[in-house]
Predict the structure of Putative beta-barrel assembly-enhancing protease.
Amino acid sequence: MKKSFITIISFSISFLFATSAHSLATDKNQLPEIGTSAVSTLSLDKERMYGQAMMRSVRASQPIIHDPVLIEYINDLGNELVKNAEGVNYQFQFFLLNNKELNAFAFFGGHIGTHSGLITMADNESELASVLSHEIAHVTQRHLARKMEAQSRTAPLTIAGMVTGVLLTLINPQAGFAALTTTMAAGQQASINYTRSNESEADRVGMGILVNSGFDPNGAPDFFRKMSGKYRYTSKPPAMLLTHPLPESRITDSRNRAQLYPNKLLAPSLNFELAKARLRARYEGNGKDNISMFSDEIRLGKYNIKQAALYGQGLSYFEDKQYEKAEEIINSLLSADPKNLFYVDAMTDILIEQKKFEPALSMLSKLNLIMPHNQVVTLNYANTAQTAKQYELASTLLQDYLIVNREDFVANDLLTKVYGKQKKTAQMHAQQAEVYALLGGYQKAIDELHTAYNATAKNTLMQKRIKARILQFQEKEDQLKRL
């Protein structure tokens, strides 16, 4: 699905802090502050609520990559690791930010964010998996909750007040530390960084998760060493090193720990290489430069998997609006691997741009029978249908999908657009309310529902549903205030 398809409703961070300070405060979670379990102040239920509210704040203020193919990839990888972790108390959610800065972070409720730059810097999937395993360990050990509890005892601050700066610190350490300076003493501000014991524990637990999931244990020390070497002499370290200090002793400990396990030589991962190529082709640089870059890599054989390099080249032609060349490359890849959703997504975009709706719909219809409710297939199918003005098909696909995936931002946003094209005014406003709610804008959501209610004078059942949803949003807003 084309990255520009989603209409992102962006609120400024200042707006978020003003309108949902409690939500942000309790939600702002940082990677570095951690501990281990059983927290008296923060129950698991509260952590979940904080995590949900924080995720809404992140959606509203940060450049989240709303790309079904990449979302599916990072969640498949992350959840494969979670299956081999102990102390899992939530359903984890992994997401990506369009940011070349090297960083990853975790916060309440099993939410883990990764900057796109971290993936493009990793040489293999084991390196990426080592970072995700480390973040999963921070969550399962409840480091953040224990840290926040300890600080709430020693500082004249509410947990909510501390969290506001903490979430900012996770995403943008320079800005976050500056914000924290205004509310915390210097010593307390410094303690926002992960403590040495927290990092050591996350490294140890993360290594176990990594190895038990079948990845190379050397992924962790290799990535540490690479990061340390690249930024050793720079005046501005990456965000990840500001929140996750990396002294030489930590690199040595990681290497020694990896040597306790048998060496594991793994073949390159096609999905990892495709995800990396997709990020480079669609979220970095420009089409013309990327065509040259991937073409040179193919000519010189500088790739781990040739299909991934060709995929990057095809996407680069697409970004440069050379659709026939893009179609030739992607069609060749798809013919050899017809169920590969990276290729399916790319081909869908290419066919839509050329207004070749029938072959796109035919391809996606067949896949939908094999993989019903798969997010890549369903969202591409619905997007193609609405572009081809088959609005009933699009709305049916999205309504069914949202029954199971109620908080899928892309699906909610697309369904709003479909209802608008169908001139279903009440449904459009009701659906727009769901989009606002996913961004933490409950008052805007309630306003949209009132508009929807006024447009359904003759539909008693829908009016009852709207009234019920208004009450639910009001309760969610009150719940945040009580936190």
In short: Residues 27 and 54 are 4 Å apart (CA to CA). The two ends are 38 Å apart (CA to CA).
